[in-house]
Design a protein that fits this description.
Blueprint lengths: L14 H22 L5 H31 L6 H14 L2 H11 L4 H5 L3 H5 L1 H10 L6 H13 L1 H13 L3 E3 L2 E3 L1 H6 L6 H15 L3 H22 L4 H8 L4 H13 L1 H14 L24 H13 L3 H12 L3 E2 L11 E5 L4 E5 L6 H20 L11 H4 L1 H16 L4 H35 L6 H16 L29 H19 L1 H14 L5 H6 L8 H22 L3
Parallel strand pairs: 3-5
Antiparallel strand pairs: 1-2, 4-5
Length: 582
Amino acid sequence: MNNWNLDDLYLGFDDHYKEDMAKLSNLVDAYKAFINAEDHTDLELVKGYIDFQEKIVILARSLSSYASLRMATDVSNQDAPVYLSMLQDIFRKSTVEDVKFTRYLSTLNLDDLAKHAHQIKQYLYLLKREQEDASHLLSENEEVLYSKLRELSSGSWGRLQGITTANLPVHFKEKEITLSEVRNLAYDYDKSVRKEAYQAELKAYETIDDQVALALSNIKREVTLMNELRGYESALEQTLFQSKMSKETLDAMISSMMDYRPHFEKYLKAKASYLGHSKGLPFYDLFAPVGKLEKTYTYEQAQTLVVEGFGSFSKKLSDFAAKAFQNQWIDAFPKKGKRGGAFCSNQPQIKQSRILSNFTGSLSDVLTLAHELGHGYHGDVISNNDPLHWSYPMPLAETASIFCETIVNNHLLSQITKPKERLSVLENALQGDTQVIIDILSRFIFESKLFEKATGPISKEQMKNMMIEAQKEAYLDGLDSDVLHPYMWLNKSHYYSAGLNFYNFPYAFGLLFGKGLYAQYLKDPESFVSKYNQLLSLTTKTCVEEVAKSMDIDVTKKEFWKDSLDQVKKDIDEVCELFSHK
């Protein structure tokens, strides 16, 4: 019951799976023939394109998700990567036609066509974005060549990082454990365990840092080269376009985060003092539990806490979580060969989700479940959208997850009156906020520097030094400068996708946007719930700024971000006050 069940997708790489692969291949062939036909009117061509894309999205999502999910819990699976490669081959077949259609689309008056076809009107925003993307296309032959080479270059380098870290043996206290297990020991109540786990983790990285650094260097060099060819000024410009987000919004948010660093520095120094450190907080104690809530949770207790917490917001949210637990949508525990961390894979084509976690019983693990179930709830809402409106941009991806995490944390706080228990829960939440604001800031700084160096090879020593400097800039003197984490670039899979650069600031956006929404919820809970579901539905249909505007929020101004950060500052002030009563 603690492993996810994928049977509603496929029973295996069996005849049904292979038949659907053939069906997808035939569908792509039919799409190619349609695009290459000469007898379509503009209206017929765009309507036909939409019809084909909807059918392809529905079928491809099940096929690719099944293979990816199988590999996520068993990175040594031999079949999954073969089928994922076959899927890439199928999609590459239509590269010429995709480029041809996008270029043709850029010549059309879509507003006029939308007056004559409902399908065009409902996808007007996405079609206009595709028009804009036409200016960054290479020639048809070049696009075909890159689509073939990408799997052998950045795609393979990314898989190398995933396989290498998932299978990395870590020697800890005379036994061998996984990387996920040793990293989870950062939450242990025993200081010596935390410190030894941190040292064992760094020691283990030394056995793989050469090849993983080479992987990261080559991925970022590929991205830099391709952006130059496509006419993007930077990887960040491309990411902002993908994110449906303006530079004005990003600058307002990052600037506000920089302004609030001294408040987080104050919290980290207070925690360091509380734990008996004379300098800043050593990295291995960032996640040290404090207070008197010295308990771990069974998986069953975690389920109860999440379902009850969600119920304080709405029955629909609570029922969704209960269904996910009951129907085996969650792969709960760490095991050898399973990738680390946590994620949610929404499957709107079957109105379900699948969630991976590495649950070990900490309060943080409970909140991670709430976080990923928030993603699942978001997926549940958008499953009612049209198929080409099933994908949301990175910044808005974290809206529901962080909102749900906040709900569960506040539900737990509402049941606690003892100061030391309150400190434990409140400080645990603050750990998460610090990661999503300050550590994300360090990752944003690091990746910015990484791209500055990506015109040539980047060594592991350069990466380690850049990471240390980024941590110092983001954390200020809150961390002990002699006990930082030079390998934070190695264990974060977000760095290793050529198609997802700067996958860090969306988390900060999600946290602060979610906190801003939660403040609105507290003012008028009854009317907020229906508005909230409408907002989640809208996330797949327009830009970040317009989604925010639907709730009367202007994310291009620092005022909104500072209001959200002030909520975190209140928690910092209370935690520091509780620390002083040790």
